[in-house]
Amino acid sequence: MVASPHPTVLHRLDQNARRLLPTLISFILGIAVVLPVGLPHWGELAPPLLLISIFYWSTVRPDLMPPTAAFVLGLFQDLLTGSPLGVGALIMVLTQWIMRGQRRYLANRPFFLMWAAFAPVVLIAGILDWIIYALLTFHIVPAMEALVRIVLGFFLFPVVAWVVLIPTHRTLPVG
Amino acid sequence: MAQRTAFSPNSVAPPRAFGDRFASIILTLAAVALIVMGRIDPTMVDRARAETADFFAPVLAMVQQPLAIVRDNMAVTRGLFNLAQENEQLREENARLKKWQATALQLEAHDQVLRGLLNVPKTAPPILRTEPVIAEPGGLYVRSVLVGGGAHDGLAKGQAAMAGPGLIGRITEIGAWSARVLLITDLNSRIPVIMEGTRTHAILAGDNTSHPYLMYLPKAATVSPGDRVVTAGHDGVFPTGLAVGRVSSIDNGEIRIEPVADLDRLEYVELVDNVAQSALTPELAPAEGHGFFEGTPP
């Protein structure tokens, strides 16, 4: 994309609208998890699509995924899914915090490095989720489901990245 | 020319390191505060949830339509492959059901006579309202669905929700245009039930697995696999006698129930009005007929 020396109003409007794409995409992925798509156990497993999205954008374009956006998206997910309020927000803010400094190690590198970096994030997020839930309800829920969700999140990462995130990334204006 | 990779094209504006760190600390504390607050004042959180669900109900309902088309087409395609087999199955089931229907009609007549003899007041059939499921916000630790009807449609907190033949849960949060149904499998679900055969009372408790279990069942009670469990309804909110499930396993005194309704595929949910409410208008009941079986073909 070649920026003209005197960008028109329309052009600037378009550029600014595109800056909202990371947040918008994350929002849509957050909604997708709760839609009754007709797959058995989809709702129960709730693949961590929002986490994938926030992880990706915080790493490659931290300027377009500020802490506030991560917080609001996490909170929105908590409200919509009915999980304890604040847990998702906490996980998203922490993810953004940790990943926004990792750009130099992960961006412009082979994709599998980023995928490998997602492994500990999805693992810790899953464990945190599980521990907070156990503390809040005084009830140890079977760890199996948490485990399934972590593994599912890990394997969905490249799919979501290649189908949704990377194509969106290519349309973004330069910082 | 080098292939544009995903990560190369964009340079990033210099991070506002200080501002971001400050924001992260504040927001982390805010999230923790919210978690604690939700624990202290759950009603406030419930209200916030209901408002959010209300706000997104139109969006979710809109997305339903294309999804439903895809779902239906998939079902049709699948159905084409085993039409013959399904036909055979249905024919067999139809024959069996006809026998059951004859038995049911007979029993109903019998019931009417006995009720007449004992002067038992007629109970009005529960009023049903059907709403589409607009979201399955299960999450990892919650079993619930969001339905596209709310207080404006006459729904109220505590009403029972059914899907086809069986109970699926009750309304726990109500907004103007949407309501959340807590499924019987949820960790927090507690429903008074009775064993249909023995009339023994118990509480059906969920634990996030697909098979809820029975609590507070008297030690002397005899239960065997296959026994039917129905709602007890004496908390004044639930209608009596809604089918819930069958005993599927008894293991070390832990009795698990297989729900009648298919909780994995919920598309429409019937909300059952409180019996106490419908009993206020007994004069309507005779006009609507004399029971559940009216209108069934002979």
Layout of secondary structure:
The complex is a heterodimer of chains A (175) and B (298).
Chain A: H1 9-19, H2 21-32, H3 42-45, H4 49-60, H5 67-81, H6 87-99, H7 103-106, H8 111-137, H9 143-170
Chain B: H1 17-40, H2 42-81, H3 83-118, E1 128-135, E2 144-147, E3 160-163, E4 166-174, E5 179-183, E6 190-195, E7 201-205, E8 213-215, E9 228-231, E10 243-251, E11 254-259, E12 268-272, H4 275-278, H5 284-287
Antiparallel strand pairs in B: 1-2, 1-12, 2-5, 3-4, 3-12, 4-5, 6-7, 6-9, 7-8, 9-10, 10-11
Task: Please sum up the structure shown.
The complex is a heterodimer of chains A (175) and B (298). Chain A is mainly alpha-helical and 175 residues long.
Structure description:
The complex is a heterodimer of chains A (175) and B (298). By secondary structure, chain A is mainly alpha-helical. Chain A is built from 9 helices and no strands. The radius of gyration of chain A is 17 Å and the shape is globular. In chain B, the strands form 2 sheets. In chain B, strands 1-2-5-4-3-12 form a 6-stranded antiparallel beta barrel. A 6-stranded antiparallel beta sheet of chain B has the order 8-7-6-9-10-11, with no helix packed on it. In chain B, β1 (128-135) and β2 (144-147) form a beta hairpin. Chain B is globular and about 80 Å long.
The biggest beta sheet of chain A reads: none
The SSE string of chain A, one letter per element, is HHHHHHHHH
- Count of DSSP helices of chain B? 5
Percent of residues in helices of chain A: over 70%
Number of strands of chain B: 12
Strand content of chain B: 15-25%
Structural class of the helices, strands and pairings of chain A? mainly alpha
What value does the Rg of chain A take, in angstroms? 17 Å
